[in-house]
TrEMBL record:
Coiled coil: none
Superkingdom assignment: Eukaryota
Enzyme Commission code: 2.7.7.49
Major enzyme class: transferase
MF terms in GO: RNA-directed DNA polymerase activity
UniProt-recorded name of the protein: RNA-directed DNA polymerase
Residues in Integrase zinc-binding domain copies: 5-47
PANTHER family with a match to the protein in the record: INTEGRASE CATALYTIC DOMAIN-CONTAINING PROTEIN, PROTEIN CBG26694
Pfam families (UniProt xref): Integrase_H2C2
Organism of derivation: Caligus rogercresseyi (Sea louse)
Length: 101
């Protein structure tokens, strides 16, 4: 959103708090900025419809190959599979048997 559509220039609670931290301070500033942004009609109208979920921690593996991650990706019109071991960070990349194009 632009400042033309929002003359006060709010960019969400966190960004406003970070900008204010560089030039002003008073006790309770973060709560005051949060209240301001949450009560702002323009901020509410333009806020993200699907906010990001918070990151969720996962258990740390205790041995190799206990937890794996896998993903398919395209590179130069070829499809590849990558498998990564969460314990050692070891990665295996293999070309898929078929092309998507």
């Amino acid at each position: 959103r632009s400042t033309a559509a929002h003359p006060e220039g709010h960019q969400g609670v966190t960004k406003c708090q970070l900008r204010a931290k560089d030039c002003v301070f008073w006790p309770g500033i973060n709560k005051d900025i949060e209240k301001l942004c949450l009560s702002c009609h323009v901020c509410q109208k333009h806020q993200r419809a699907n906010p990001h979920d918070p990151l969720k921690p996962h258990d740390i593996p205790t041995r190799p190959w206990e937890v794996l991650g896998a993903n398919l990706f395209l590179w130069e019109r070829e499809e590849y599979l990558i498998v990564a071991d969460y314990y050692s960070k070891y990665q295996i990349v293999r070309k898929a048997c078929h092309s998507v194009y």
